[in-house]
Amino acid sequence: MKKFRRWQRIFLLSLLCLTVLAPILFVSVGRKELISDLSNLRYRRDSVQLNAIEQEEGEGLKGPKLVVYDEKELGSRLRYSTSEENNDSKKYGNIGEIDRGSKSSQKGGNMSIPLERTNHESREENRQIPQETVTSRSEAKGQSNQTTIRHDQNMRSPVRIFTDEKVMQMKDDLIRAKAYLSMAPPGSNSHLVKELRLRIKESERAVSAANKDSDLSRSALQKKRSLEVTLSKASRVFPDCSAMALKLRAMTYNAEEQVRAQKNQATYLVQLSGRTTPKGLHCLSMRLTAEYFALSPEERQLPNQQRVHDADLYHYAVFSDNVLACAVVVNSTVSSAMEPEKIVLHIVTDSLNLPTISMWFLLNPPGKATIQIQSLVDFKGLSANYNSTLKQLNSHDSRYTSALNHLRFYLPDVFPQLNKIVLFDHDVVVQKDLAGLWSLNMKGKVIGAVDTCREGEPSFRRMDKFINFSDPFVIKRFDAKACTWAFGMNLFDLQEWRRHKLTALYNKYLQLGHTRQLWKAGSLPLGWATFYNRTVILDRRWHKLGLGHEAGVGLDGVERAAVLHYDGVMKPWLDIGIGKYKSYWSKHINYDHPYLQQCNIHE
């Protein structure tokens, strides 16, 4: 009996020891296996993930249907959800970053750059494995990562499609509701009329800030359904479809008339703003004029005036009453020239702006170049006959009747001692050296200009749009299909001009245009007629048009052009100027100048 109890105690003690030691042994062995599994998992995370994806594909799961969008539709309809991107990044680590890197590398033609960087980071972490093993494993991992990323791109391309069907339907329902409301008898205050007014008010508030269906709140969708119920009631009260169609046509016509009126008003306001002088520019003119008259006659003289008639130098002319425009033309021409000491710039303005422009260049001389400033009154015999002729032009636009605009046809009289000259409009910017123009072979022609006769381009002009080819006088002398050209930057051979007596021909055409309608107002059609068959076409890189009226001019062509022309009403010194082209003009103005600061003139 004692032996039995002793063995019983030994058996119980052994069981007790086993229950105590077994968990300790199990934990110690399991911890080693867990650590090894974690280390393997650490370096095989991508491949395990790839295997899981491949197994899911092998089980017959179908991927999302890929949709191809146009570029315009993609910008307005497709957007990735931020929350889904965050979930994807948590689930797949840095796959989103690799996607973006792979997309940018695809644009450059190399897709492997971001993948190699990811594998390199993995190799840096694995320091306990020999180098040869790391290299082979990273190569295998690179292939698996590429497959993972391609698959992830397919899974993430278009995640969600945003539409505006409900928004458009609500707007259409609003139009129907307003049509039903207008069909109600005047002064009607029935329950349906009150309900229509209420639904219209609610729906307008709900849809006012919505551009796509996802912008609509739950209450907005409820209001949409309420409006549809009210419209159903109204359709039973007003069952006459012909009356509804007639009302909708009237509403459409009224809307089109309002749009047309708004467009006309916008066009008029743009034209008006293009003819007005900015307040800051008027302030600058007043300050410069006051400073000019405070000087003595000797201090008003510009230097190097003995060089203005030297025919061996490069002569450039601009006719303008805008001091800032003249400053940009002069500064850009001098800064772009390889030999600025050979440049002579001639500015002709009216008597009102002569003190302003003279004072500006006394304060801001053009470096090594020479500048001459003249007034229209300096050409006494020319201005008396000339102004009387311009007053006969049937135009209220000062741009067409301005003496400075038509002075270009009297260049041999304005510069009698010169043989060649380049004439700028005041809305140009020079970007490159123009010395090559002076060695250009004019082939006996009078004017050099870029053509504007290529259809489909913004600068395209046709002669029959500006000249009246129904007149027998015009038909005998000109061809409606002749190539047109542009003012703005033109090279003139004044010797050939004098030989052909083209100024007298211009005066003849100007008088004929007054007696009968031969051409539109302005100097361009008269220029085409005066220099007809006497024009040499320049390479288009010399002169880039359209920066004052066409926002679609490519920046590549702008960068390559020697001269930029802001033709049109949206001048760069106005608030309505096209923003992306303003920097080419404004960089030639020192906005830190005290006078510009005082007159609040800034970029």
TrEMBL record:
Enzyme class, spelled out: transferase
Cellular compartment(s): Golgi apparatus membrane
Pathway annotation from the record: Glycan metabolism; pectin biosynthesis
Keyword Acetylation attributed: no
The keyword Nucleotide-binding belongs to this UniProt entry's keyword annotation: no
Biased composition range(s): Polar residues: 128-148
Database matches in PANTHER family: GALACTURONOSYLTRANSFERASE 4-RELATED, GALACTURONOSYLTRANSFERASE 6-RELATED
Protein name per UniProt: Hexosyltransferase
